[in-house]
Each structure stands twice: as C-alpha cells, then as structure tokens.
Amino acid sequence: MENASKALIMAGSVLIALMIIGALILMFNNLTAYQETDTRSTRSAQISEFNSQFETYNRKDVRGSDLYSLLNKAIDYNRRQSTAGNTTAGDRGQDIGYEPMTIYFTIDRTKLSADGANTLITKNSYTISQTNNEFENSIKTTIDNLEDTYGQSSLTNLTTNLTNIFIDDSSSDQEKQEAVNKFNSASKKVTVSSYSQIKKDSTIRSDVYKYYEYIQFKRAYFNCDKVEYNQSTGRITRMEFSFNGKFN
User: 189-221 pLDDT, tens per residue?
Assistant: First the structure.
C-alpha cells in the first residue's frame, strides 16, 4: 500500500512537471510568435515610413524645385543606407545594404531656354543613381558662380525683365539706353554704362540666359510616370518623371 502511494505521488509529480514544462513551452512559443509579429509590424512600419517620403512625389504636378530636392534626398539615402554607400567615408550604406534608389527624368530643354539655345542644361534626360547627382553636378558650379557675381535677387530680377533688357541690336539708341537703365535698376552688384555690355553676344547676356534656364527648370512641372518597388524589402527603388509642358 505504501509503495502504491509513493508511485501515485511520483506519477503526480511527473504529471505536474510535464504540465509545467508544457506551459513553459507554450509561453515560449507564444512569446516567440509575439516577437515575430512585433518584428514584422515594426519592419512594415519602417517600410511604410520610408516609402511615404518618396510617394509624396508620385503625382502629376511635381515642380522642378521639388524634383531637385528629391534628387538630393535619393543621393543621401544611397550614401547612408544602400550598398552604394562608401564605408571609408563613414557612411553606413554597405552595412545596412538596401538596394540604391534611382531617379530618372526627361525634360525638353529647349522649353527652358529664352532663345532656343541651351548653354546650362545640355541633356534631355538624366539618371540619378548610386551616390552621384549627375544633374546637380552639371549645373551647380555655374549657378554658384553666377550668384556670387551678380547676386541671387539681381539674377531673378534680370530674368523677369529679360525681353525688356536684352533687346535686338537693331533697336534705336533710345531703346538701347532704356535697356541699360532697366538692367542697372534690376542688377545691384553689376552695373553697365553702355548697351554694348549687354548686347546679344555679350558675356552678361549669356550669364543671365543661363540663369533663366535654371529658373525655368525650377518652375517646370513633371508627371511621375512610374514607381518600382523591391520585391524582397518592399522599398521604393526607382521613380520616373517626365516634363508635362507646364510652368508656374
């Protein structure tokens, strides 16, 4: 009888131990499932947050000034979080290892020019990927030099009064003098004393016409034609834009 009681007690202890172990396993499985769900939820939120900063440009009225900002945003992402990043420069891109972002856009550059001859923006399409902003690199030095020479506000004034200042060489002497006066009224850092300084083949006219292209690009409207996503990460990897012919 005593042996039977001991056997029952041992069996009960084993049963209780098995129940405890089962409960612990169930708790562990539930915790693991919760952590996995939480991880997926966090990852999904991160992807959504990342995509949202680019999806705001997925529309039919993206101004050139906004597109210019998008190019820099994509380059910054490529440098800091994509495989295009340079670890020797302290970027973390290679460690994080996402696919680089690509921005492609087309533009009818003749529509940006005041006389049909482009001397600033020389291509009708640009592909910005990796860590090199081809578009900005092609114009930044020129724009910076022009703004240093003439002043940004003066250049804006000059481009606004373009047709009244840079008149035809066959214009009368009075009209030429009025053009000189209008130039000096619009320009603060650089002034002229005669029409010859702003005539058709002058350096000043060429400078202002280059800045006019820059202003027109910023005023141009673009359509977002295509958005591509990485199938594994869910992140946007490519956006394509085209000039829709409108300015504002």
Answer: 999 999 999 999 999 999 999 999 999 999 999
User: Is the Cβ–Cβ distance between 211 and 239 less than 8 Å?
Assistant: no
The position carrying tokens 């992402």 is 77
Q: How far is CA 55 from CA 16, 18, 77, 126, in A?
A: 57, 54, 15, 20
Q: What is the pTM of this model?
A: 0.80
In whole angstroms, give the CA distance from residue 174 to residue 182. Answer: 12
> Do residues 64 and 213 make contact, with C-beta atoms less than 8 angstroms apart?
no
